[in-house]
Design a protein that fits this description.
By secondary structure, this protein is mainly alpha-helical. The protein has nine helices and no strands.
């Protein structure tokens, strides 16, 4: 029974925390300034790692596809078509969200957890400040509003990695790869992938904030909260991805 009660209790605490978070800020100007700070800290600072990972993953997918799809019954553009579908539909949204859960999620949990153990949150509550709204809401707003841009960067650079492989090696002609990218292209796949990232951004930021906000104890508990935030948000991202795919694409 304890195995069931603990997740239910955590979920109840999470819902109550989100209820405190999504209220009208007492100071709109200050909240907007915090939002801009979080936008840079969580979003802009993640651009480089998104670009680097996407370029290499796009290149690796292209190489693997070319080496393993050797059937004469398949058209030559199959490699480009497959790379495009993988990058647009899953990698740039779902897999990138898992990477951001590790980078951004751990950052959020450790930052808020440190504020909890250093009693900064308690001081805010004593002064009558809604600490959940002041600390968590800008992080959620920044992550949800910027993660589609990170996904778009990932799409562009992932396909760019495939172009680099065709350009600097003789593994396949550039024209064949380009033909594959253009074959049977469906524009709504891009909007579907970007739409998914809104859910992923909310999950990563809100779950990580919950674990950081709920820290009790010392620095060791901050590390444990950071780990739990990454694990739980990653699992929820995968579950949400399956549900959204079934609902929208099914």
């Amino acid at each position: 029974m304890k195995f069931i009660k603990k997740p239910l209790a955590d979920f109840g605490d999470y819902v109550m925390l989100m209820g405190r978070t999504f209220t009208r800020p007492d100071r709109l100007r200050e909240s907007f300034r915090c939002y801009l700070d979080e936008l840079y800290k969580l979003g802009v600072s993640s651009i480089l790692i998104v670009i680097v990972i996407s370029i290499f993953i796009g290149a690796l997918i292209t190489i693997q596809m070319q080496l393993n799809i050797m059937s004469p019954s398949l058209p030559r553009y199959t490699v480009g078509y497959s790379v495009r579908e993988i990058v647009l539909l899953e990698f740039s949204s779902s897999i990138m969200a898992l990477i951001l859960a590790g980078k951004v999620g751990s950052n959020i949990a450790s930052e808020i957890g440190t504020m909890r153990v250093s009693e900064q949150i308690d001081a805010m509550e004593v002064m009558g400040i809604n600490s959940a709204n002041y600390i968590i809401l800008p992080k959620i707003a920044a992550m949800v509003s910027y993660i589609p841009f990170l996904s778009a960067f990932s799409m562009i650079t992932g396909l760019g990695g495939a172009y680099f492989v065709a350009l600097f090696t003789d593994i396949m002609p550039m024209s064949t790869l380009t033909h594959g990218f253009q074959a049977y292209f469906k524009e709504h796949y891009i909007w579907y992938a970007l739409f998914k990232t809104l859910f992923f951004g909310f999950i990563i930021s809100s779950v990580s904030s919950y674990y950081g906000y709920s820290v009790k104890g010392g620095s060791r508990e901050v590390g444990r909260a950071s780990t739990n935030a990454v694990v739980v948000s990653s699992v929820l991202v995968l579950i949400t991805d399956v549900l959204l795919t079934q609902i929208i694409m099914g």
